[in-house]
């Protein structure tokens, strides 16, 4: 007794006896291979040549290089955005008549000379200090937060208002 679907296809004339026996033989081989624990696809694959291995390694290396270049390009774009933000929004300092404002960066204490009202605004969290290359610039707090989104290490001093800072002057 065979497969009822096969019998119907044979009676309808859609397949001949040779095609039906071929399909039956393939099904038998597949069931035997599955019982032995062998994968049908494993046996159907061609052995991998050294050239294919080299090509695959080259493709992986190229992907890694392009990923690294994309990261570098993104970092460069972020630094350019930071520079543009700081230059466009920096607050002019009073180098000649200003007071020294000291802040720590790593293990060193740095100072910049700014006007007295700017010191008050720095303490209130309205202004922040950002490092741009080897110089320090004073920018509005909003700009300092935008810089911090791109590079947290560039923001040197930014006081966040606390719960007790809600007093109105």
TrEMBL record:
Domain of life: Bacteria
Alphabetical list of InterPro entries matching this protein: DUF2058
Descriptive protein name: Nucleoprotein/polynucleotide-associated enzyme
Bias (Basic residues): 31-40
Region (Disordered), start-end ranges: 21-81
